[in-house]
What we know:
By secondary structure, the protein is an all-alpha fold. The protein has helices at 4-19, 26-33, 40-49, 53-70. Helix 1 (4-19) runs antiparallel to helix 4 and helix 2 (26-33) packs antiparallel against helix 3. The longest helix is centred in the C-terminal third of the chain and has 18 residues, at 53-70. Zinc ion binds at residues 2-3, 5-6, 66, 70, 72.
Amino acid sequence: MTCDECLAIAQLLREVRLLSSNWASEEAKIAVDALPGGTEQDMLRAEALLPDLSRFTRALSMRLSHERLTGHKVAWRGPG
Ligand SMILES: [Zn+2]
């Protein structure tokens, strides 16, 4: 299930991700993938790699709370 809010959050996540070329690095991907449910150390490592991280995590927490409230699934990771 998706809705307008899902789409808006997905768009936001993609935009923030595209802003930083660091997002393309494998190290950054691993660091970000560790964030949901991760430790504070995971957060610090990701922050060091990615200056835009605070915007991203804000969008990520919007996503998580929306998914929790509605049972929707925000699909923001396109192919590649
Ligand atoms: Zn939704």
